[in-house]
Amino acid sequence: MRAFSLTIAGCMALAAPAAAQDTIKIGLGVPMTGDYAPYAEWQGARCMAEMINAEGGVNDQMIEVLVQDSGADTQTAISLAQKFLDEGAVMLGTIPFSDTMIPVAQVAQSYGVSIFQPQSTQVEMHAGIVDNFFTGVSPDPFTATAAANHALAQGVKNVVLLTSDEGGSWSAKTPLWFGDVIEAGGGKVLTKLNFSFGTSDWSPQIAEMRALGEDIDAVYISSIMPDVGVLIRQLRSAGIDAWVVGSDGFDDPSLDAIATDDASLLDRVFFATLAPSQADSAVVNFIADCAEMGIDVPGLFPATGADTVKAVAWAVEQSGSTDPETISATLRDADSIPVLTVDSISFKETRTYAQRTIPVIGFENGERVLIANEIPTNTPTDW
């Protein structure tokens, strides 16, 4: 397992690291390698911590981001969480799937520590199983609804849903919520087809689509790259010109890359995501600033780690305390918390997630464009 920790205060010719008791430790046992690596937040956390430390830290304390690779293994993530807790971490991040986040939160609870998962959209985390959890974004029913609303505005009627149990509700139920909104808007779900992560041959699903004998206006999937890029190519090769619609898993630079030789491949692709990520957005500007500092932040998901660091830093500054329970209470009671990906968030009404606008990103000539950015009001309630 690839593993290392980053003491941010000591990087890039900044001041030498402060003593352990003088630092604010955030522990990230996240997937730095493997299929989930593009969706981990550690690079953005590292960059934001360096920015804050360069300005003198928080209340004369430096931020120390502890990072080790969990891969996609829950037991490794739990072990790393325990390690970071024993080292004095006041906030944790982990693999952004509920089958890992729940046991990690349970381990952290006896320390008074919470998880701040800046990119988690899974509804399981808001069911009351654990109460020491924050996510900086809205749950999947909101992204599904935002995408469906735009699809209906494009005249979409007949849709095919691709579902998988491998990513929890994110890949299994997000397509169903999309379908619910489509049907509420007068459309029809033609069929639901299963898939597995890592699929490189979509011909069985494509054959079933062709066998329907009906025009398909849109295919919806909540999945990861490179699978989605392969699906788009194979659909077009099979003569299926339907919209390909998705969730935040599409928001990876490798999707944009499939249009390098043929921009038209993305003409009929759009997705609802976590934060605006088109040119000149706050995320893109942050990525550019980090690059100037010598830190590669490769896309929206890695950038979301900045939200974790900014939120913790704000809570420490506001409360004057590094006690983890005080930090969590300060976050939960705040009317407005400044972050990077949007101007501010709040947990005061929702307790565990940040209700915020849901951007819908499309493409023109292979370049990202922001299509919509609203809080949906017609979200399904069965979650």
From TrEMBL:
Record has Cell membrane as a keyword: no
Signal sequence interval, chain numbering: 1-20
One Pfam family of this chain: Peripla_BP_6
One BP term from GO: amino acid transport
Domain called Leucine-binding protein: residue spans: 23-352
Keyword Electron transport: no
Domain of life: Bacteria
Keyword annotations from UniProtKB, A to Z: Amino-acid transport, Signal, Transport
InterPro entries: BCAA_transport (IPR051010), Leu-bd (IPR028081), Peripla_BP_I (IPR028082)
PANTHER family linked: LEUCINE-SPECIFIC-BINDING PROTEIN, PERIPLASMIC BINDING PROTEIN OF ABC TRANSPORTER FOR NATURAL AMINO ACIDS
Entry similarity comment: Belongs to the leucine-binding protein family.
Stated name of the protein: ABC transporter substrate-binding protein
Species of provenance: Kangsaoukella pontilimi
